[in-house]
Amino acid sequence: MVTEEGWRPIEVVRGLLNTWRIPDEQPRTPVDVLGAVLAEPAAAEEWPDLAAGPDDEPALREVRNALRRLVEAPRDAAALAAVDELVRARLVGRLEPVADGSLRAGWRPRVDSPDARVLVAFLRAVADGDWRRTRACPDCHWVFVDRSRNNTRVWCSMGGVGSRACGSAAKMRRYRARSAAGHG
């Protein structure tokens, strides 16, 4: 669902979740670059809805880390409880009338801040069904939205021009392990 503002809520969330980078394309060693991203003038262009700056880094990092734990372990009760606690502390639920006379559930920040706006986008993505399609690559930890028909994508990419090849690399590791064991 694209909102009236023209953005997909999941892309706001995914943008924050991917403020970890893999140096030199090495797997499993993400580096936190949130501070550097927020210090860049281009951050305002990348996240115009957030209007975030360096002063917002601690609160955004807290939200990002909680959401990252949830996307990497969606059935973990502690990860869900941590996100739920952030939502309850920063947002207020509300009902909004719709033109056809029905009601729509919505959320608004208790205090308008970038971290609260990310949580609103997260809840919209949950309501849209996009959050259930959100995954973290087991190799490089890049967060992506699985748009495949059967919703079973595992890796961020199978390769291609200018992209990682986490899926291809994982399949090659399994093939080599089977070959070494004589099951080739």
Number of strands: 6
Described by strand count, sense and barrel closure, the largest sheet is: 2 strands, antiparallel
Give the distance, in angstroms, between the N- and C-terminal Cα atoms.
45 Å
Principal-axis shape: globular
**Number of DSSP helical runs:** 7
Q: What pattern of helices and strands is seen along the backbone?
A: HEEHHHHEEHEEH
Strand content: 5-15%
Give a brief description.
This protein is of the alpha+beta class.
Word description of this protein:
The chain is α+β, with helices and mostly antiparallel strands. The strands form 3 sheets. A two-stranded antiparallel sheet has the order 1-2. The protein starts with 8 loop residues before the first helix and ends with a helix.
Task: Name its key features.
184 residues, alpha+beta, two-stranded antiparallel sheet, globular
Could you give the topology of this structure?
Elements: H1 9-17, E1 20-21, E2 31-32, H2 34-39, H3 42-46, H4 57-72, H5 77-90, E3 91-97, E4 103-109, H6 114-128, E5 134-136, E6 143-145, H7 166-180
Antiparallel strand pairs: 1-2, 3-4, 5-6
